Amino acid sequence: MTESKTATKAAASKGFSNPALKAMGIPTIKLPSRNWMIFWSVLTVTLSGIAYDKYEQKQIVKRYCNSVESKSKLTLDTNRVPRKITVFIAPPPNDYLETSLKVWRRYIKPILYYAGLDYEIIEEDKQGLIRTHVANQIRQIRKNYLAQHDGVPKIEVVKDEETEQTTPIYDPHPGKEFKRSFDYRDIIGIFYHRPKIEKIINTDSEPNDPKLAGGVICLGRGAYKEYINGLHEGLLGPLEQPEAVEDKYLEPAIEELKEKDTTASEIREALEESSIPVEEVSVPNEDATVQGEVKEGDIKKDDDEKKEEEKNDSRYLPRFISPEEYSDTPILDEILKQLPVIKNSATGVPILLHQPLLMIPVPSLSGFTTIPQRIVRFYQRRFYTEQVCSQVTHLINQDNIRPFKDPSDLLIGVEEEEDWPKHWVKQGLKKNSEWVQPFKSDKRVTEFISVLGQDYDRSDD
Question: Contact, 334 vs 119, CB < 8 A?
């Protein structure tokens, strides 16, 4: 009896066998051990979850692409420019621009492509570039308006004191004007033998309602803040850059510290504690002391290098007006005369202020302690894909557009700030960073802004 039980256990340990299976050449069937079963089960569940989420993402993007594909099949005359979407992309704090570009390439660009729309991308690798770009566009509109209505072209002249005769000074570089007016269609392309198109019509200039013209997408909370700040700066700020901040505040502060025989590191620490932006300060090396003529020369040299570097980077300009000055600044005549709809005089397209705005948050967690939450988000990426694709489709179809609610709409995408690293926010507060400063607006500007309805709009109904 004991020997039969032992034989049965030995047979069971070797696996399952059957004469019929042996006749067909199938070896003994044996299940893996417990540890191997656990390993393969976990691996299968992990890979299956990834594959399922990736598949759902592709299906969601494909579904929304198919829903707007009919728009690209509409005929468009050769003298017409299609609708254009302006996309502002900013990287998450303490992260690379590639993180935001992945969202653009995977979920936004395919839908715009299948809809047959044109788009312009403005990328930011430094804080303030988007704000400067938006403000410069509006300032240029204001300058063009003043030149057309108030400005009179003047010819410089030289007056001879003896004869009291004036001689006009002509442009010493007439080739520049020829280059600006030169059209390559006159010598190449199909227009060499055929009459060229004299007037190009922008589709965005035709709708009576400016909300149906173009569109703006801000990818990231930082891009959204800079875009709103750029609108206020362009409309309320001066046309020319005011006196630099460092000339008014930094020089007296440094002079006071120099009298106290302070080191360079102590100067930086003192300025960090003040409300002056640290990025606008240039101090000598840490091992240098600020005393005597040599130290003063080092400060001046570093300041000159800093100013020269900022001049070379024409993409970024300091603020022309602070948010605290919005309410005290009147709207100038060149703006009031163009309202309620300000258009580009060259194209007839309403400026970005009037075009519908869509803000898309870019979730990005970093740090060791956030690994569990990052894993959960990784397996639920399809929900974020659905949210982004649906919002972009609404923008393309020009529905679900509503007026800007001030100040509640300043909180659009505020959930993204919960992912910002705390040490980065703390450092930004010390440096007076634009992204962590109080986000303010003026109703005289926001009354002309329209945005895409968010999820909480439908929940409130």
Answer: no
Examine residue 156 and state whether it is found in any structural domain, yes or no. no
Instruction: Give the total number of structural domains in the chain.
Output: 2
**Tens-place pLDDT, residues 327-337:** 888 888 888 88
Q: Which of 137-151, 196-210, 218-232, 255-269 has the highest mean pLDDT?
A: 218-232
Coil, strand, or helix at residue 350?
A: strand
Class of residue 124 by CB neighbours under 10 A (exposed 0-12, middle 13-18, buried 19+): buried
| Other CB atoms within 10 Å distance of the CB of residue 256 | 11
pTM beyond 0.85: the answer is no
3-state DSSP assignment of residue 451 = strand
Distance CA 242, CA 239 (A): 9
- Domain with 337, as residue range(s), is 55-150+174-241+323-460
pLDDT in tens, 356-376: 999 999 998 888 888 999 999
72 CB-side CA count, 13 A: 14
Task: Please list, in sequence order, all residues whose beta carbon lies within 8 angstroms of the beta carbon of residue 246, skipping any fewer than 6 positions away.
Answer: 280, 281, 303
Tokens, residue 70 = 């009919």
